[in-house]
Amino acid sequence: MAYFNGMISSKSLQMQTGLNVVIPDNITEQKEKYKVVYLLHGLSDNCTAWFQNTQVALFANEYNVVFVMPEVQRSFYTDMKNGLNYFTYITEELPKICQKLFNVSDKREDNFVMGLSMGGYGALKCALKYPERYKGCGAFSAACNMKRFLNYDETDFFYKEIKAILGQNLELLEENDIYPLIDKCDKSDIKPEIFVTCGTEDFIYHMSTELKEALEKTSIPFTYKEWSGAHEWYLWNKSLRLACEHFFERVSEENFCNIV
């Protein structure tokens, strides 16, 4: 396993930003470009979180996939009203950088986006808005209903953050709402496959069940799995393993690990 932990220069963000990338062991033997998963972090995490808290390095070898873990601060993967253009960075600039630096494919059938909590929301938004770019999406404990976050007290720090992201008059709410994107994607000829997981004790469990109910009314292919668990890394590690099993073929038994 090769591991990149460093900084790249982003024109979209107009600054240096953190990036972690895990590459399978077979770098010198790999003849074709790698499949790639853009793996998105949650609200209180950063680009190192997935590598520090899961077996992502084992999964890279087992499924011969590159995992790209970018940094977006607490932006909810948006082009913020009062902030930086993180959605443009994730969907436009970052893939081009990774295709040049890390030998990953630009083909739709080789591109996937996954994430937890805030990153689950980001993954859904990427795949639903640009289904022609992503074959699959993994949304783990996804914080996917922006409107529910508006119920916070106006003195609360998080409420102020949401206003910075969406605007004081919430003028960017509609374009960043998952549900209109679901409706629009359902009418598209190209649809991503969506893999949803959540723990039944998660404090935002209801968001996953609401997402499931909405997807059931569409022709968008999706898989939904839930089991006992909270908003925690044990669940997200298992979720990532299950998503890899769902989307990819195992290339070697050598690094297989059985996760309960």
Overview of the molecule:
Helix content is 33%, strand content 21%. Strands 1-2-4-3-5-6-7-8 form an eight-stranded mixed sheet, with helices on both faces. The protein has helices spanning 49-53, 56-63, 86-101, 118-129, 157-166, 178-186, 205-216, 233-247; strands spanning 2-10, 15-23, 35-40, 65-70, 111-116, 136-140, 193-199, 222-227. It has 260 residues and is α/β, with parallel strands linked by helices. The chain is built from eight helices and eight strands. The longest helix has 16 residues, at 86-101. It has a single domain, classed as Rossmann fold (3-Layer(aba) Sandwich).
Instruction: Determine Rg (CA atoms, Å).
Output: 17 Å
CATH topology: Rossmann fold
Q: How much helical structure, as a percent, in the residues? A: 25-40%
CATH superfamily: Alpha/Beta hydrolase fold, catalytic domain
Counted beta strands: 8
Q: State the CATH architecture.
A: 3-Layer(aba) Sandwich
H/E element order: EEEHHEHEHEHHEHEH
> What is the domain total for the residues?
1
